[in-house]
Write a structure and sequence with these properties.
Number of strands: 17
Helix content: 10-25%
Shape: globular
Largest sheet: 6 strands, mixed
Structural class: alpha+beta
Distance between the termini: 46 Å
Strand order of the largest sheet: 5-4-3-2-1-17
Strand content: 25-35%
Order of helices and strands: EHEHEEEEEEEHEEHEEEEEEH
């Protein structure tokens, strides 16, 4: 299957961001993409650098304006499309939500981000309620998509649960970057860890992994930090963790990558990790810590 990845920068102009996204999605479809994946919270700047109640105005319902507009585009291009939106579920209740649009423009399903960070420049707990939909792949015409979002990518449990529910691939819309005052060796370690853990999910579960990150520098509105330099490096890994493509850190780019939908079966036959799991011994994984 051909998968399109859109790595782009964003500005404060939501309309301009959406128009650029639509152009990039169309370019991927014209190159033969059957599935196109966008980055986390792609309609706007990454607003979680500060705690600002005014930013809640960016949220929208699902279904809502964005799903309607992107659904029309997906239908016209005959593609499956993965969105990442700031969901307004109810007054005072918001989620960081990924949505899958089917080829016919219908909503195939959604996933609400389960793990919510609260770190300097990533104050997501102020905005997002943890997801309550669990780890369930979304069935589409191109396969069962194990969809998670950004901070979820550090947790092997979510990837495993998606695999155990029959996911054909793992997908992570992402917004992650460097703090400018970190030395270069620390930046290299962070990026290396980020790629390693996700490639590990591919290996441990025998599944391809698709990760799409933002790029560009976004200023801190408070001026307390130097902002975030989003490190790009969107990538696709095969079921043995092999890199099928890796984007640069500082460039906007669209790519279409061929992902085998049969290789997972071959890999799991030679590396039968699911067969050999000692599930009767894993009960303590539901504990916060083993004292």
């Amino acid at each position: 299957m051909k998968v399109g990845l859109v790595q782009q920068s964003c500005t404060s102009d939501v309309r301009a961001n959406v128009e650029k996204l639509k152009k990039n999605i169309t370019e991927c479809a014209q190159k033969g993409a059957e599935l196109v994946v966008l980055q986390e919270l792609h309609n706007s700047l990454y607003f979680c650098q500060t705690e600002d109640t005014g930013c809640f105005d960016l949220a929208e319902t699902i279904p809502g304006p964005s799903t309607e507009e992107f659904s029309a585009l997906a239908k016209s291009l005959n593609i499956v499309l993965v969105l990442s939106l700031f969901e307004k579920r109810a007054v005072g209740l918001y989620h960081n939500t990924a949505v899958v649009i089917e080829r016919d423009g219908s909503i195939a399903g959604k996933y609400r981000k389960m793990h919510i960070p609260d770190d300097p420049a990533y104050y997501e707990k102020f905005y997002f309620t943890p997801g309550d939909l669990g780890f369930h792949p979304i069935q589409t015409s191109v396969g069962k998509l194990g969809l998670m979002v950004c901070w979820d990518q550090w947790y092997p449990e979510g990837a495993r649960l998606m695999a155990l529910a029959g996911a054909d691939m793992l997908i992570y819309p992402t917004a992650i970057g460097w703090e400018s005052t970190d030395p270069q060796d620390e930046k290299d370690r962070q990026l290396g860890a980020w790629m390693t853990v996700q490639r590990g999910h591919a290996v441990a579960n025998g599944l391809p992994v698709i990760t799409v990150n933002r790029t560009g520098v976004e200023k801190d509105p408070s001026g307390e930090t130097n902002g975030i330099q989003f490190w790009g490096n969107s990538f696709v890994a095969g079921p043995q963790g092999e890199l099928l493509t890796q984007f640069p850190s500082d460039k906007e780019e669209n790519r279409v990558v061929e992902v085998s939908m049969t290789r997972s079966e071959d890999v799991r036959r030679i590396w039968p990790f699911l067969r050999d799991r000692r599930i009767e011994c894993f009960g303590d994984l539901t504990k916060r810590f083993r004292d």
